Amino acid sequence: MAVRPIVAYPHPVLLEPTREVTEITDEIRTLVQDMVETMHAEPGVGLAANQVADRRRIMVIDLTAGEEPGQVKVFVNPRVVEATGKQDGEEGCLSFPGIYENVSRPLRVRYAGIDLDGRPIEGEAEGFFARAICHELDHLDGITFLQRMSPLKRRLVLRRIERMRRNGEWPEVAAG
Ligand code: NI
Question: N or C, which terminus of the chain has less Cβ within 10 Å?
């Protein structure tokens, strides 16, 4: 197991859709272990594979951010099959350190995918869990929470990131 470097916006790997996993291999199990360790090291409540520069459709969520054992959820090839309601709340992202903004998300989602044994999973999520699923699924589609902000907020955040990059206060973005 190893903590992997998290790529920061605007690394291109964050802006392109990931690819579906066709076979669960030991290498993918290692990737998932590393993703969980990386998420817990921050700590964060969710991580998408492209945030550690891997272009496969895999995400992990732990709403306790590692505080409680056995709370890690692994999603391979996840998708939302139904979304209802609406919630507003502050959201952050490990690829946007220090940026927290209001983002509207569905209140409830039904999701589907497969687990690390290749078995189908399906379930319902509500509230913060639904928010986390939508945020990470967006990553896997090449969408960051920047695109879910109002145009005004987005401009302000982009300006802030540009300023931080000029001042060397933003993580180095490695070549994609
Ligand atoms: Ni994120």
Answer: N
Question: Which amino acid does the sequence have at 28?
Answer: I
pTM of the model: 0.96
According to the model, what pLDDT value does residue 174 have? 58
Q: How far is the CA of 71 from the centre of ligand 1 (A)?
A: 19
20 is catalytic: no
Instruction: Check if the beta carbon of residue 7 is closer than 8 Å to that of residue 51.
Output: yes
Q: Which of 20, 136, 162, 172 is catalytic?
A: 136
- The rounded Å distance from CA 19 to ligand 1 centre is 18
What's domain 12-166's architecture? Alpha-Beta Complex (3.90)
Amino acid identity for residue 91 in this structure:
E
Closest to 143 (Cα-Cα) out of 50, 39, 19, 71: 50
Position 176 confidence tier, pLDDT thresholds 50, 70, 90: very low
